[in-house]
Each structure stands twice: as C-alpha cells, then as structure tokens.
Write the structure tokens for this entry.
Amino acid sequence: MLDGVTLDQLRTFLAAVDEGSFSAAGRRLNRAQSVISQTLANLEGQLDVTLFDRTTRKPTLTEQGRALLHEARDVAHSVDLFKARARSLSDGLEAEVSVVVDVMFPIDILTIAVLAFREAFPETPLRLYVEALGAVVKPVLDGICDFGIIGSLPFTAPDLVKEKVLSIKTIVVAAPHHPLGKITGSVARAELEKHTQLVLTDRTTLSAGQEFGVFSTKTWRLADLGAKLNFLRVGLGWGTMPIEAIRTELASGQLVPLQLEDSHVDGYTMPMSIIYLAARPPGPAGRWLVDRLKLVHPTPT
C-alpha cells in the first residue's frame, strides 16, 4: 500500500497542516473540503497511521502526524527541486537574472562578481536590488527575484534553500565629536540609551516585532547604508556598520569604534547567505553568479 502514496496526497497533508484546517486547505488547493478529507483518509489508510486527531474543533496533528511531517516536507521539497532543475535545463539560459542584495553585503565583492558575470554572459541582463532586512527576503518569496543575499535579517522558511556565502565583521561607531565618541573605554548601556541610534528599517512586515542590535529607545531608521554613513559622519547618531564599508573613515578618524559594555571587543560577525525558492532554483546564469559570489571571502579583521 505504501507504493500507492502520491505526491498529491502529501501536498494535501502539508496544506492541511500549514493552513490549520481542512476547509482552508481546500481553499488553497481549490478543492472541496470533502475531497481534502477523503484524500487524507486515503493517505492514512495507505500509511496505516492516524495523521490528524479529528475529535477537536479543528483537526490537529497526532504524534504520528508530527513524526511524518518533516519527511513529507522533504519529499515535496525534493520533487519541486527536481522539477525546477529539469525545467531550467529544458528552458536553457534565463532571459534575465534578478537579484536582491542585503545592504550589508560588501560592495567590492559584489562588483567583482558582477563584472565577471557580464563577461561570461554578455547577452543576459542583470536586475539588481539593494535592500535591508525583510525587503531582501520578500522579493524572493514573491518570485520577483531569482535569489537574494541575506544577512541583516536571519530568516528561514520551508520553501527556501539557504547557501552560506561569507561572514562579515560589523562594529559600532560614532563620530569623534559625538558625545559617545569622546568616551574612553567601555560605554555603558545606560549611556547608549541617551543618544539616537541609527538603525536599518524594514520596508516589509517580515521583521515586525523584532529588533536586531537596538539598544537605544531613541532611533532613526534608514534603509540606505550610504545615508546612514553620512549621518554617522556628521554626528547625528551612533550605529553599527560593516567594517569593510568604513575602513577609510576609521583610518582618517572620521569615525571611531565604540566598545560597548559586556560586548565583543572586536565587533560582531554577521553570516551572509544566498536564498532562493526550492521550487525555483537559479538557472544556468544565476547559478554561475551564485557560485562566483561564493569564491571570494573577505577576511574579517
């Protein structure tokens, strides 16, 4: 009986779990609730297990259902990946490669990779977006971008594949004439709260209710790293920056590092990863660019 289990049954099972009810799964799959119920009953019969407890107002996963959920996702994921890769091979080269990049990603590495991409694929246009936090993830989830490079928002989802690219070093800085920049030694958290912190803002709701490295109750939120750097230079606030983006300012003394109380002396390491939909992996040109980006690793100092 197990050989009779179909991909459609597994997708129905996953839809019922993800949507929270058989009726909602039916709406998602454009099927009647009775069809969903019968499909799941047939699946349970073939597996000889009970996947859902139907004695509650809404069906809930049984212990057996929870045990099989991960494997069901893996099977659906693998089939999606298989079909997508076959489709990309049959379709040939992409008409365009669309990428969304976290503002924290080193621009020098991106530029080198893009130059190499143009030489390797001169007839393939590149569409590039630079965003922060959830605005890096959403275009990938929505199918607008072939892949994204995330870092400022650690994000995972069952539909996404994640490949590690590199890690960057970030430090907290201020202008030397800023009140915090004049402090010698460690800066107490209570002192940080007195001054405006410049932080990245999210154009989406994916990071709603979450704060990353925010210590002050006074914040100015920016989506552009260049604007944040300019504001830091003139002393409008303090904030975290990737060290590669401010080496000139640190060397010239336009910005000074702040040693926060109970924090790492040499800053923080931010892992950065490439993400894409499992059902829509990058095509030949996009895959080439992904692999090229993974070749160069900055050395955090």
Q: What stands out?
A: Residues 63-91 form the longest helix (29 residues). Residues 196 and 218 are 5 Å apart (CA to CA). The first strand starts at residue 52 and ends at 53.
